[in-house]
Amino acid sequence: MDLTTLIDGPSALIVGGGTLLATVLRSGLSDCRITLVKLGGLGRRGFNLDHTRAELGLQIQEIRQDGLLRAVPHHSGDAEFDEATDALIGRRSVSALLEAHEAHRSRRLAESERAVRTLAQAAELAPVFGLAGTLVSLSQLPTTGLAQGAFAGSISMAVTTTLYGLLGANLLLAPLSRMIERKALAEEAERQQVTDWLAAQVEAAVAPRPSRVPGREVAA
Fold it and tell me: Per its UniProt entry, which superkingdom is the organism in (predicted)?
């Protein structure tokens, strides 16, 4: 099998360019920009659970030593947890930490959903432009007689554009959409784990400690 026969510039331009243009027109520049950011993040390590938890452990130690009223924010390097701990220290409330986390969680999920939706639309459009390329190539058949070279070229382009559309949708765009979705869900699970741990640690650190007196216990 000669795979070089499957390489065709005009077919790639029709399918790729048409799919890109239609996706931008459907989804808008904002969603496409978010999608590009998410695609770029697939090749990089995202949230570092162990590092963030270790850094937040220092914040817990300070709260245990100085109390929540005198503690100062200790930044972990993760912008979202830094903002959440700033809210925790600033408002002296675990609920402030949870509110900040939920706000960031909603924003992250919304962005991921927009990227997934954009790629899903592109996956739907790619076979359509594969079919469009097929129609364009068939329209180039000569109207007076069928020269062997012209016939072969048109049929080859028709098949190639259809193939490009199917492969682009099912082996590129749809898998990329699922990769973004899986990465987003995995990150949210890790962030939720750290948030629950941090909230529990803070509540334990600021809880009143019972002290023993003869015959009974009273809260310190």
Answer: Bacteria
